[in-house]
Amino acid sequence: MKALWLQRLTCCGNTHSFLNYEGLEYLFSRFEYFYHPSLSLESEEEVVERFLKEDFDLLLVEGAVRRDDVVLKELSKRARFVVAVGSCAVYGNIPALSDPEVCGLNYRFKERDGLLEDPEVINLPGCPAHPYWIAHTIFLLMQGKKPELDQLGRPKDFYSSLTHWGCTRNEYFEWKVDAEELGSERGCLFYHFGCRGPLSYSSCNRILWNGVSSKTRAGTPCFGCTEYDFPRRGLWETRQYAGIPAELPIGVSKRGYIMLSGIAKMFAPERLKNEG
Amino acid sequence: MKVKSINLERVEGTARLELVWKDGFIEDARVSFPYTRGIERVLKDRPYMDALVITPRVCGICGHAHLIACVRALEKAMGIEPTLKASLVRNITQSFEILQNHIKWFYLFILPEFLQDSNGLRKLYEPFKGRRWFLAIRQAAQAVKAIALFSGQWPHSSYAVPGGITSNPKPSDLAQLEAITHQIRDFFLKQVVGLEEEELRRFLEGGSLSLLKGDLGLFLEFAHKEGLFRAGRAYNRLLSGGELYNPSGFYCKKTYHGRIKPSALQELTPPSYSTVSPLRYRSFPYETGPLSRQLLSGNRFIKNLHREYGDSFMVRVVARVLEIWHILSRIEEGTKRLYECLHEPSTSLKKPPHVKRAYGYAFVEAARGTLMHEVEIEEGLIKRYRIITPSQWNLGPRCERFLGVAERAIVGLESERQAMLVLRSFDLCSVCTTR
């Protein structure tokens, strides 16, 4: 497989996330050719020039893009697969917030109004994307298989379950025992601290970060960085109306939430409520 | 007169170097960065806590330093201090971020630059293929795993909050931390300097450079061959805001001076070729980074080296690589102290309070040097946010009186290769410069 990784408006966070992948040596041994601007010895200008004239297998883009990016438009026609690595390349993310001319590859936030009308890009959102999401998508593509995607172009393998899945605070969520303060290992962060775990699709608590942890496991709320509305305003707050969170877990009705949380609170086991 | 413009490869982000030649020497050099992302603008009018999530996204390789700078600035604004446990943990995670950065910089950005004409070595250090290249990346990945034990993930965690941290480390986390520290230590001794621990200690007490083996020894051979032991000097003005393992201060005209005052920092108007503001301290340009830190913390070996060769390319690189050892020792001390206070609360503040009106700033040491965050809060919202990055000191452009630091270090060199190497010795992080 011949692959090009290109960077646009980026912090390079996806590159550094990717470098944490344990199987890196094996992965690279399977490429016939791989180019990365901050790692390769060749000059980007020459490489791009060459691949504008020849078909290749995989174009990976990191970073938000400008609408006048002709090079990416042309390269995407030459590539068999195009992958947007990280939320900037997928939705535009932070760089697009202050510039209307900046967008993602297929999308600009939730609108399908990005740089490329086609092809359908394989989107790996996350700020950054997890190394497994990147590497394992590449492994699949190496076999010529395109992963099954959801309606936002994200591989279902990684984005069909909520961040909430596998969160070690799940039992607190079930019984509505809320964290009242930060820095406590007890309590759910959904009610007071804006946790987006039940509202975001990602596998952060199933495929752990750096092999050991995740935001919610470290007591930090999920900020929903795999979704188009990241970074929302008020990232550490849960907006509420009359004590009910303004946004409820995906698919949960307001009536259901009120009834269940009332009952859960009433019967919550003491061991969850006591500190220590 | 000949002018050549070069798009730089192997850079964090995008950067350009323009060289003006005259009679076989570089007469003028311009370093510039084409893009901006507007991160400070995004922060305006948001709740102040949002900055803890957004500012780490300035940089994928030193985002953790941004997080720590941000939380310290907020704490100063609120007039609160973190618990001892939290500040020990923060120092440890910040230190590991510096370690991974130093390792990646040396193995991924510096060493490959020397490879072009050495076939045997090319095999070892070649990107995506070389055994040592992978070995270095694996060490860096271990270092950031140590961060994730406390912060949940790396890159881009937001586990530091006003008053402390969100996590509750356990003794078992510290055991894993110790194992990782030991592994990196082993790598440093065996691969980086090629010495036994005792030999290294003796060397640091006043040994000669020729005793260094390993990859640093190899680097010295190359640097000598390229004539870069004394070349690549800038203004010999060095500065650090302190706050990790060295005191705040600056060095100029052979004298050390105490504490940096933020009021003496000046951001001037950018010249036409740059979008970045020149940064001056009391009207003068300063270099920041490991060399400044090592001099201010009184590292005898680096002081001697600096006395002999000045702020040259070689000294800059050696100071940064040897800092790995210095930091590892401090991590070990910190881990011991941390065992003693694991029972403490993780934060001194239960919930982020409403802040009516406040101002705070903080200096923090990132791998490449001193980072400053400054915040003004009004009715809980960010009124103004300012970030000054190490790369702005080192790679920023000229003002009316002085060239930028890196520009100054390049002028007078004899080859494009030398120019590239010298520029790399400052570590090109355009993403921080173009936030």
Description of the structure:
The complex is a heterodimer of chains A (276) and B (435). Chain A has two domains: 2-157, 3-Layer(aba) Sandwich (Rossmann fold); 161-276, Cytochrome-c3 hydrogenase, C-terminal domain (Cytochrome-c3 Hydrogenase, Chain A, domain 2, Irregular). By secondary structure, chain A is α/β, with parallel strands linked by helices. In chain A, 50% of the residues are buried. The longest helix of chain A is centred in the C-terminal third of the chain and has 14 residues, at 254-267. In chain A, a hairpin with a 2-residue loop joins strand 8 (240-241) and strand 9 (244-245). Chain A has helices at residues 13-18, 24-29, 44-51, 70-78, 87-91, 93-97, 131-142, 156-159, 170-174, 254-267, 270-273; strands at 2-7, 33-35, 56-62, 65-66, 79-85, 102-103, 122-124, 240-241, 244-245. Chain B has a single domain (2-433), classed as Cytochrome-c3 Hydrogenase, chain B. Chain B contains 16 helices and 14 strands. Chain B has helices at residues 39-43, 51-54, 63-78, 84-110, 119-125, 131-151, 171-193, 197-204, 214-225, 290-296, 300-309, 313-340, 390-395, 405-410, 416-425, 430-433; strands at residues 2-7, 16-22, 25-32, 160-161, 164-165, 238-240, 249-252, 255-258, 265-267, 279-281, 287-288, 357-366, 369-378, 381-388. In chain B, the strands form five sheets. In chain B, strands 8-7-6-11 form a four-stranded mixed β-sheet. In chain B, a hairpin with an 8-residue loop joins strand 1 (2-7) and strand 2 (16-22). Chain B is globular, with a radius of gyration of 21 Å. At the A-B interface, helix 1, helix 2 and helix 6 of A face helix 1, helix 2, helix 4, helix 6 and strand 5 of B.
